[in-house]
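Q: I have 314 residues here and want to know how they pack in 3D. Can you give me a structure?
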Amino acid sequence: MLKKTILSSITILFLLFSLSVKGTASGSVVVDRVVAIVNDDIITMSDLQREEAQRAKNEGKQDEHRVLEDMIDRKLQMAAAKRAGLDVTDKELNEAVADIMKRNSMEAKLFDDALAKEGLTIEQYRSELREQMTLSRMFNKYVRTGLAVDEAEARAYYQKNIKAYSLPEEIRVRQIFLPLPEKAKRDQAAAVRAKAQAVYDRLVKGEDFVSLVRESSGGVTASQDGDLGFMQREQLIAEIEAAARPLKPGDISRPFQAAGGLNIIRLEEVRTPVKPYEKVKEEIMNTLYQQKVENTYRSWLQSLRSDSHIENRL
């Protein structure tokens, strides 16, 4: 009896070994092996290689260990769907395939040909589609259900991450402008420069900038009290931006030539504007929702793993 048992065990081992050896055209052999055990199911090296090849077509080369972990997660979810009675029935699968063919205006022969170009048979396609439908069903039930983001969460996120919604820095400059034509005679140019220096000296002594704008500037500059308004630095004339760069709010520049005249500027204010909450509310809501989805999904997968027997042999 013992002898028969030993012979039986040897026979089984031999058969298992034989099934794991595949012949090739050159006569060499490739030994398939189990790379993971998930409860009562297995993942073989050939399964893993097929998955990697498929992903490489769409996403480029993948990390082998990451791909295997993803396959394990899918096995766990498919098993959980079966236990919960949420797996996709043949009727549902047939209806889904028919709908896909209809939406793409394809008859059975044309559909089979299209699959063949992708290296798939109709059986393989149906198997992959069943899995995708089942995983989607599980995801909606155990991850998406009940997730929501309220106004308070969104506003708190906005305040905490306010810097992320900042716009480029802006400066507000006030200007005294004294016209100086390019073809001005030497004495005319000298007179304008002398006037600019005199205005600057009065400013240094403490005279009011706006009063001197009204007294010394003309045209649009005077009508606006020299206020150029808020602008991003790169929007300013290069010479004005360069003159404003070393200034702090309240500081006055020395006279400099730009835009057909001599200029004296005072830096009024520097600010970093922020996008209003209402403008970014939808973006924040989506961000927070995706975070909740990812966190819930990870927790759910972890619970499936903790209740399962998993061996990663890679």
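Q: Anything worth noting?
A: The first strand starts at residue 21 and ends at 23. Residues 1-29 have pLDDT under 50 and may be disordered.
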